[in-house]
Write a structure and sequence with these properties.
The chain is mainly alpha-helical and 291 residues long. Helices cover 78% and strands 0% of the residues.
Length: 291
């Protein structure tokens, strides 16, 4: 007579555990939905309000005079490519080299200081970096310039790339380094041609994510590049960028500007999305190679 009661108690415990598991899975699914919904709302709003303005003229023409219809944002697209590209040329080599040094010489005092400074910079608001770049470059040279904007964005990029590169290189087993050193490779050549090459997909992933991060920064450019209504390629002059164009058009008095602000924001988020997808694909390729 006791066995059925024991079996009943065991079945009740199993049902209770299954219920708890279902509840926790449901809570996790709800958390994922809550995390994804804002992004979906943002994308949906941008598509509804900005997709209608994505015409050929939008990508190939300069802005029309204030109050008139037509024109485009080719000046901002070109400016973004120039400013972000120059920032990448400055920030990526410095960040990658710093990350390699911190990973290969983890016990040096310089490594400790570098990590600390990188962590502080990662938590510094971008507007503070913009003010610093204004005081360091713009106020000194007495004029705004795209080069100052690139320097500000590079300062935001370097700590991200540095820490990502360091963490990627730490994943390389010491046996690979020892094998290269045993073959007569010097330490610097082992780090650059063996270790860095092994983690290249991961380093590329970190670089792409850093580029995606700085592509949407507005505050540093307000203090440095300033913006322009003309198509220009001179790094020593003020230059337009998509984030600045979104800010200017969104706060302007004309309805045409508001529509173009939505369209420019859509283009900007699509650029960030493409870079993020590229980073994910690089990361997947790294895992497949390691597997």
């Amino acid at each position: 007579m006791t066995a059925p009661r024991a079996g009943g108690r065991g079945g009740g415990r199993r049902r209770f555990r299954r219920l708890k598991s279902d509840v926790m899975v449901g809570l996790m699914v709800a958390a994922v939905v809550v995390a994804v919904l804002p992004l979906l709302f943002i994308l949906g709003t941008l598509v509804l309000r900005g997709a209608g303005s994505l015409t050929t003229a939008f990508f190939t023409e300069t802005p029309a005079p204030a109050g008139e219809t037509g024109g485009g944002v080719v000046h901002a697209i070109v400016g973004t490519l120039i400013i972000v590209g120059t920032a990448s040329l400055i920030g990526l080599p410095v960040g990658i080299a710093g990350g390699i040094y911190c990973a290969e010489y983890p016990n040096s005092r310089l490594t400790w200081v570098t990590r600390f400074v990188a962590d502080v910079l990662n938590g510094t608001p971008s507007i503070v970096v913009g003010v610093f770049a204004w005081a360091w470059i713009v106020a000194t040279r007495k004029h705004f310039s795209a080069l100052a904007g690139s320097a500000a964005l590079a300062m935001l990029m370097i700590p991200m790339v540095l820490r990502t590169t360091e963490e990627m290189i730490k994943l390389v087993p010491n046996s690979l380094r020892e094998a290269a050193l045993a073959l007569g490779y010097p330490r610097w050549r082992t780090s650059l041609t063996i270790v860095a090459r092994t983690t290249l997909p991961g380093i590329v992933t970190g670089g792409l994510l850093a580029v995606a991060r700085i592509s949407g920064e507005t505050a540093p450019l307000l203090f440095t590049a300033l913006g322009s209504q003309y198509l220009g390629t001179n790094l020593d002059e003020p230059m337009a960028a998509l984030p600045l164009t979104v800010f200017t058009y969104a706060t302007g008095p004309y309805e045409e500007w508001h529509r173009y602000a939505w369209a420019a924001a859509l283009v900007l988020i699509l650029v960030v999305f493409i870079l993020s997808v590229g980073a994910r694909l690089s990361l997947r390729r790294r895992h497949s190679i390691n597997g």
